[in-house]
């Protein structure tokens, strides 16, 4: 009965929206709206944390530029055969971006600004990762609208039934048969991740905890999801996204399970993050004892002798008067 009910979720994708001379992709709209919505929430949280609007706007602008560059560069590296000449690399509007590359590019673009402003990388990222999860959710809705990132054929009850209409990515099953829809799985994963992060941020934890949870969770999800995708493995058995995901997952789990602490010191002043192990080390270092100054012996001052007047007798006094 459940299979039959979910089968009614099949739909014809809306790949383009034609508005006069404009041709708009719901996929691009989803990415833009997701980024703007995440940036709006990020701005509000940063204000409460004491950051200025100028600092936040600068970080967001850098993240926007970095995400576009990173998303494209990661895709080009993983799919070099998709381009007939180097100029096609810059035709981003024709499609071909990587979500993990976009996240990496946004982070790398923001790091120099964090350092110049004395902001803790971990404090800023803890504010950002729930917003990233929110952005992923909205962006994946755009993927579903155009039926993008369609995967391998399947009889799984959540499989997408290939329609007669054109889809955002090739549907590699006969019309009426189903394929995996990794964008749907990623939507579920990001939604649950957002709920978990919002609950965790209500409790005071060490700086970087939310960032590490995000990396471990999303890394695990992407590693699993890509087994249902159709993508280049370059003979390694794993996609580029899977190699990235397993690297991030390993590092985050090490910090969460072994270190159980902020990975490294970052920031300055009130926006500084200091790992507990560093604070303990600082406290165990005793300051040098001050050396007591030796008292300076004062030289005795020689007193000048006072001449005593001779005692005069009465007769001597009379003689002096005469």
Low-confidence stretches: none
Mean pLDDT: 88
How many strands? Answer: 4
Order of helices and strands: HEEHHHHEEHHHHH
Number of domains: 1
Description:
This protein has one domain. Helix content is 54%, strand content 3%. The chain is built from 10 helices and 4 strands. A two-stranded antiparallel sheet has the order 1-2. A hairpin with a 2-residue loop joins strand 1 (17-19) and strand 2. The chain is globular, with a radius of gyration of 36 Å. The model has no long low-confidence stretch (mean pLDDT 88).
Short description:
The protein has 322 residues and is mostly helical.
Give the topology.
Blueprint: H1 2-7, E1 17-19, E2 22-24, H2 26-49, H3 53-78, H4 99-117, H5 121-146, E3 160-161, E4 178-179, H6 182-200, H7 209-225, H8 240-259, H9 276-284, H10 314-321
Antiparallel strand pairs: 1-2, 3-4
Helix pairs in contact: 2-3, 2-5, 3-4, 5-6, 5-7, 6-7, 7-8
Features:
322 residues; mainly alpha; 54% helix
């Amino acid at each position: 009965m459940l299979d039959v009910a979910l089968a009614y979720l099949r739909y014809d994708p809306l790949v383009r929206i034609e508005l006069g001379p404009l041709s708009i992709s719901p996929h691009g709209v989803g990415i833009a709206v997701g980024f703007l919505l995440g940036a709006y929430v990020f701005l509000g949280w940063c204000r409460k944390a004491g950051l200025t609007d100028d600092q936040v706007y600068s970080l967001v602008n850098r993240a926007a530029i970095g995400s576009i560059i990173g998303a494209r560069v990661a895709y080009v590296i993983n799919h070099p055969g998709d381009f007939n000449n180097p100029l096609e690399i810059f035709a981003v509007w024709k499609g071909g971006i990587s979500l993990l590359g976009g996240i990496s590019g946004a982070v790398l673009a923001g790091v120099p600004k964090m350092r110049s402003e004395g902001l803790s990388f971990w404090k800023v990222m803890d504010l950002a990762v729930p917003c990233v999860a929110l952005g992923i959710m909205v962006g994946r809705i755009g993927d579903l609208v155009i039926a993008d990132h369609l995967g391998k054929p399947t009889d799984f009850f959540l499989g997408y039934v290939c329609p007669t209409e054109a889809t955002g990515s090739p549907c590699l099953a006969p019309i009426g048969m189903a394929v995996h829809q990794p964008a749907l799985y990623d939507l579920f994963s990001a939604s649950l991740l957002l709920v978990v992060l919002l609950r965790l941020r209500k409790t005071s934890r060490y700086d970087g905890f939310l960032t590490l949870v995000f990396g471990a969770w999303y890394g695990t999800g992407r590693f699993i999801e890509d087994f249902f995708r159709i993508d280049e493995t370059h003979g390694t058995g794993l996609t580029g996204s899977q190699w990235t995901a397993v690297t991030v997952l390993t590092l985050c789990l090490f910090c969460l399970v072994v270190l159980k602490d902020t990975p490294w010191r970052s920031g300055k002043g009130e926006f500084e993050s200091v790992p507990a192990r560093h604070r303990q080390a600082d406290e165990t270092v005793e300051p040098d004892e001050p050396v007591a100054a030796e008292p300076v012996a004062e030289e005795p001052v020689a007193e000048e002798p006072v001449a005593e007047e001779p005692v005069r007798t009465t007769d001597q006094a009379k003689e002096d008067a005469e």
